[in-house]
Amino acid sequence: EPEVTQTPSHQVTQMGQEVILRCVPISNHLYFYWYRQILGQKVEFLVSFYNNEISEKSEIFDDQFSVERPDGSNFTLKIRSTKLEDSAMYFCASSVGLGSWGDTQYFGPGTRLTVL
Amino acid sequence: KQEVTQIPAALSVPEGENLVLNCSFTDSAIYNLQWFRQDPGKGLTSLLLIQSSQREQTSGRLNASLDKSSGRSTLYIAASQPGDSATYLCAVDNQAGTALIFGKGTTLSVSS
């Protein structure tokens, strides 16, 4: 069964460094998402992406964050200058269509980001 | 602003028990409600999706119901097994259908 994959599974970085988290969505999906989950807290939406554009972003997704689909298979989340509070599990998800059409989002296994 | 709440936060039951997990949401104008399972340190696995026009969905020992007007959903697990131990998350779509809004989850522990 097709699945969303994410690399790396764990990333450790120093505060102020740039990190890029990578995702390979399911191949026929058109909508891509990033979420994060700080330890012990809710899963929070960051950004959704469709047709090479951001379709929605949350308050969390400030200028330090960016997303890109550099080729036909990868979807990346870049954090320009990491802060301690960026430490979290980051989940990528993809879907064929929107939730308003009744489509499910499929989640990857996550990347645990630790900022020291 | 849509808020999703799940109670209880944690639940421990002996194997074989039937149990109910609860989810409530503040804005009844939703497209779908989904239940996910999350194992420790792992990703989210979709269990059931209920569209707003539906009242319930079933998959194996799982049954999810939706009462949109009262802003409530329940996940019923029949004949629980130790392998059911996980955190169960409830999520609804935002108004545009472009993002999911999650509850904090119920952590279930089933003892043998």
Write the layout of secondary structure elements.
The complex is a heterodimer of chains A (116) and B (112).
Chain A: E1 5-7, E2 10-13, E3 19-24, E4 31-37, E5 43-50, E6 53-57, E7 65-68, E8 75-79, E9 88-95, E10 106-107, E11 111-115
Parallel strand pairs in A: 2-11
Antiparallel strand pairs in A: 1-3, 3-8, 4-5, 4-9, 5-6, 7-8, 9-10, 9-11
Chain B: E1 4-7, E2 10-14, E3 19-25, E4 32-38, E5 44-51, E6 56-59, E7 62-67, E8 72-77, E9 86-93, E10 100-102, E11 106-111
Highlighted features:
heterodimer; A: mainly beta; seven-stranded mixed sheet; 49% strand; globular; B: 112 residues; mainly beta
Describe the model.
The complex is a heterodimer of chains A (116) and B (112). By secondary structure, chain A is mainly beta. Chain A is 0% helix and 49% strand. In chain A, strand 4 and strand 5 form a beta hairpin. Chain B is an all-beta fold and 112 residues long. Chain B is 0% helix and 57% strand. Chain B has no helices and 11 strands. In chain B, strands 2, 4, 5, 9, 10 and 11 form a 6-stranded mixed beta sheet that branches. Chain B has a 5-stranded antiparallel beta sheet with strand order 1-3-8-7-6, with no helix packed on it. Chain B is globular. The mean pLDDT of chain B is 94. The chains are: A mainly beta (116), B mainly beta (112). At the A-B interface, strand 4, strand 5, strand 9 and strand 10 of A face strand 4, strand 5, strand 9 and strand 10 of B.
